[in-house]
Each structure stands twice: as structure tokens, then as C-alpha cells.
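We include the pair:
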Amino acid sequence: MTLDTHSETALDHAASPEGDASHHGYITDKDKYLNRMKRIEGQARGIHKMVEDEKYCIDILTQISALTSALEAVAVGLLDDHLRHCVVDAARLGGEAADAKITEATQAIARLVR
């Protein structure tokens, strides 16, 4: 979404943290994210089965590490999309909307690095 061609949409989205789902930065990659999440769900089910079947601890931990990495990759992708679209649009508008989006992104990053 560019501010020049969608300024009213960008303004509405920048002012609202929730925004309209059709305007989120990730929307162009929605199918990619949904496919990744399906694979992650499968990994989680696989770990559940490993515990159920009393598999070796290290093998379970290895799968948990892979699951964690997969979730982190999705999170970083969503954060990148958010910064490139939602935050950039808000920054172009300036003012309180920009400050709110930057604060929101900073808080999201802080949650991810904990």
C-alpha cells in the first residue's frame, strides 16, 4: 500500500492498531504464512506424538528447537511486513499515529527478544 494512492486507507490503518485485515502488510503473503502455520501445526502435533510415544528426550528437544525456529521465522517475517507497510505508512503521516506505530513495533520487538 502506498500513501500516494491510498492515503485515506493509510490514514485509517495508521490511526487504528487493529486496522482492516485487508490492509495489513502481510496480506500479499497471506497464503505463504498460512502454509507455514500449517507446517508448524504439524510439527507441534509430531512433538505431541513423540512425547506420547515416549521418544528419546534429545530427539524431542531437537524437534522443539526446530518448531521454535519456525515460529521465530514467521514472527520476523510478520514484523518485517509490519515495519515496511504499517509503520512506514504511519511515519509518512507523522504525528501521534507515527509515534504510536513506532512504540507498538518497539514493544513487539521487545516481546520477541525475551
